[in-house]
Amino acid sequence: MDKKTVTTISYLSRLKIDPEEEEKITSDLENIIKFVDQLNDAETSDIEPLTNPLEKTAKTRTDQVTAKNLKKELLEIGPSSNEDYFLVPRVVE
Questions:
Q1: H-helix segments, 1-93
Q2: Contacts from 6-13 at CB under 8 Å and sequence distance 24+?
Q3: How many whole angstroms separate alpha carbon 78 and alpha carbon 3?
Q4: How far is CA 10 from its chain centroid?
Q5: Could you tell me which residues come within 8 angstroms of residue 79 by beta carbon, excluding any fewer than 6 positions away?
Q6: pLDDT grade for 35, boundaries at 50, 70 and 90
Q7: Are 57 and 63 in contact (CB under 8 A)?
Q8: In the chain, what are the domain boundaries?
């Protein structure tokens, strides 16, 4: 990780980095890369891939309509409506 890479990353992420903090950020990014690189050393040949890290399945239920159709009642209490919509004054000519 060099200063040019840090500058490019900061430009792409639209972050302004102070020149005084550039050295610390470079060091921090190097430490993060080293930490993540440790995952390459983990033995994973006998482990099956997971579709869900919690190893639980989602509960399912039947899809049933439980709400009532209140269209007529709501249109009746509106100030002006036709059989399908509320009527409002024209705004755009």
A1: 3-12, 22-37, 71-77
A2: none
A3: 65
A4: 22
A5: 86
A6: very high
A7: no
A8: 3-41
- This prediction has a pTM of 0.46
Task: Say whether pLDDT at 1 is over 80.
Answer: no
User: 86 has which bridge partners?
Assistant: 81
Could you confirm whether domain 3-41 is CATH 1.10.20?
A: yes
Q: How far is CA 56 from CA 1, 44, 47, in A?
A: 40, 21, 17
The contacts of residue 25 (CB under 8 Å, 6+ apart) are: 6, 17
Mean pLDDT of the chain: 88
